[in-house]
Amino acid sequence: MSTMITPARETVRAADRVAAARRRVSLRETLGQTLMMAWRALKKMRRNPEQFFDVALQPILFTAMFAFIFGGAIAGDVQSYLPLMIPGILAQTVLTTCMATGTQLREDMEKGVFDRFKSLPIARIAPLAGPMVADLLRYTIAATLTFGMGLVMGYRPGGGAGGVLAAILLAIITGWSLAWVFTWVGTIARSAQAVQGISMMIMFPLTFLSNAFVPIETLPGWLAAFVRINPVSHLVTAARDLANSALVSGEVAWTLLACVIVIAIFAPLSVRSYKRHM
Amino acid sequence: MTITELGRLGGGPPSDRSTDLAVHAEGLVKTFGGHRAVDGIDLDVRPGEIFGVLGPNGAGKTTMLRMLATLLKIDAGRAEIFGADVAANPHVIRQLVGVTGQYASVDENLTARENLWLFGRLQGVDAPRARRIATELLGQFGLEEAADRPIAQFSGGMRRRLDLAASLITRPPLIFLDEPTTGLDPRTRGQMWDTIRGLVADGCTVLLTTQYLDEADQLADRVAVIDHGRKVAEGTPDELKTAVGNSALQLLLANPDEVPTAVEIVRRVLGSDPVLSPEQGRLNVALDQADLAADVLIALRTAGVSISSVSVAKPSLDEVFLALTGHKTDRNHETGTEENR
Question: Do A116 and B96 touch (CB under 8 A)?
C-alpha cells in the first residue's frame, strides 16, 4: 500500500485559501448541513433498529393498558373511553419520543465524531437539528401505531381519515417543537442518565397534568388552572376535535403558538450551551 | 504569499510580521477550575514547516491545540492563523485548519466511505466530487478493501488513517495532528511519518504534538518543549539534542547503597550529575559522545563500584526534560490521562 500523497496534485496555497474563506454560514448552507446530519441519523437508526423498540411498543402497550384500567372508571366502558383516550396516548407517545432525542444526543456528543463536527466550518445548529429532522420518522411511526392500535381495539374516529391524518400531523409538529426542550437538556446535562432523569421530570407532569386521560372537570380548581395552560392539553383537545369530528378548533392555533414559543426559546439556548461545551 | 492578502482578516495592521506566519500565538492561557492547563504560551509556526510540540502527558499540548482549532475558548492571550484572529473568526479558522485528534473522530455508525462522504458534503463539496475524493483518499491511505465495512471492525491504525484522511478532504493549508502515532506499531508509525512529510511537500503546514523525542527529531523542522502549561525550550531538534547530549549511559548498580558514590564519580568524570531512576540502583548519564561511556565505566571500576548491567542508548524524553526543566516528567503519575481515551 502507499500512503504517500500523489505528487501530481496541485499545491495548497494558504493565501488563496485565506482570501476564499467565508466569514459565516449562509441559511442555505445551514439547511444543507442539517439535511446531511439527518442523513447520518437515519443511517444510524437503520443500523441500530433497537432504537425503535420504545417507539413501537409504547403506543401498543399503553393503549391496551390504559383502556382497560381507566375505561370503566372514567367513561363507563372501554369503547366510550377510546375517543377520549387515543388522542391522549398520541400526545404521550410523541412526548416520550422527544425524550429519546435528548438522551441520544447526549450519548452521541460524548463520541469522538462530535469533536470533528465542532472543528468543521459548519453551522453550530446542524448537529443538533439534523437528528431532530430524522426523528420525524419516529414520530410518524409512533403516531400511526397509536391510531392503529386504537382501531384494532374498536376505536372508530368520527373525523374520518382526513381528521386522523391532521391529528397525526399536528402531533408530529408538536413533538418536533417540544423536542428542542429535551435537546437543550441534552446539551446541559453531564450524562445520558442525567438527561433521562431530568426529562422524566419534565415529561410526567406535562403528560399527566393535562386532559390526556381524564376530563378537566373532575380536577380541583388549582390543578385545572395548570392543566388549561399546559400545551399538551391544547394538543390533546385539538387532536380530539380533529380525529373525532374533523373540527379545526382554536386549540390548533394555541398548540402551534406554543410550538413557536418553545422553539424560539429552546433552539437558541441549545445552540448556546452546545457551543459552550467546546 | 502576499502580506496584504493575508492581512485582510487580521486584527493588526497589514505590515505586522505575524501575518507572515501560519500560526502566531501570544500568551495563550487556559484554566480548568483552578488549574492553569496552558499558562502563557507563545508560538510561531512558519508556513511550510513541520512544527513539533514535545511534552509529557498532561503538559497542556492537547489543550493548546484545541484552543488554536476553536474547540476550546481562549481564556487569555491571542492567536492568529494565517493572519486571521482565532477568537474573532472561528468560522474562517475552521476552513483553514484540519484537525486530527489523539483518538479517531470518525462516526462509528458509518462505513469509512460514508464518513468521508459525510464530511465532504458537510463542507460544501458537491456530491460527485465528494464521492471521487472519498475513493481517492481511501486509496491513498490503503483503506480500499475496508471502505464499505463498519468502522467498529477497524484496527487502531486504520481508524487513525481514516481520521487523517477525513481531515484532508478540503485540503486545508494547516493541519493539526495530536499525537499522530501514539499507540501505533512501528511499521504503521513509519507510514504515518511518510504521509505527514507528503503533506508538507504538497504545500501544507503541519503542527503536531508528540511525546517522543525521536518523532520530533525525524519529522519536525522546529520543536517547542512544553511542561506544566509553559514553553520551556524551543529550537531545531539538533539544538535540543545538543542540550542533553547525543546518547545516554544507563547503569544498574549491583548494590543500590553505592548510588551516592557512583553519582560522585560521574560528576568528577563528566562534570554533570546523572539522573536517578525510580528503580533502585539505576542511573542515567547523559553523554555528549558515546566514547565517554568508557571513561565513566573505568572510573567506577577503579573505585570498586560493581555494576550488574550497562547499556548506551539515545537520550529519551525524560533526559531532555531533566536537562531543560531540572525535574522529571511525572510520567508515572499521569500516564493514561490522555493516552487511554
Answer: no
pLDDT in tens, B158-187: 888 899 999 999 999 999 999 998 888 888
**CB of A29 closer than 8 Å to CB of B219:** no
What are the residues whose beta carbons fall under 8 Å from the beta carbon of B320, sequence distance 6 or more?
Answer: B54, B213, B225, B240, B241, B243, B244
Interface contact B194-A4, CB threshold 8 A: yes
pLDDT given at position B193: 92
**A10 located within any domain:** no
Nearest one of B162, B212, B137, B159 to B182, comparing CA atoms: B212
Domain spans of chain B, in order of start: 3-241, 246-314
Residue A11, in any domain of the structure: no
- A205 contacts: CB under 8 Å, gap ≥ 6: none
Residue A153 lies in a domain: yes
* Residue B26 parent element (H or E): strand B23-32
How many structural domains is chain A composed of?
Answer: 1
ipTM: 0.84
In a domain, A24, yes or no: no
| pLDDT tier for residue A259 given thresholds of 50, 70 and 90 | very high
Taking CB atoms and an 8 Å cutoff, what residues of chain A touch B94? 119-122
The grid cell for B320 is 531532555
- Cβ distance A153 to A67 under 8 Å? yes
A1, A120, A126 ranked by CB distance to B142: nearest? A1
Condensed to tens digits (0 to 9), the pLDDT of residues B257-303 reads 888 899 899 888 888 888 787 677 888 887 877 788 888 899 999 98
Residue A121 has pLDDT above 50, yes or no: yes
Inter-chain CB pairs, A–B, below 8 Å: 152
* pLDDT recorded at residue B65: 94
- Per residue in A194-221, pLDDT (tens digit) is 988 998 888 888 888 888 888 888 888 8
Minimal C-alpha gap between A126 and chain B (Å): 9
Q: B3-241: which CATH topology?
A: Rossmann fold (3.40.50)
Domain limits for position A165 = 29-276
Span B246-314: which CATH code?
3.30.70.100
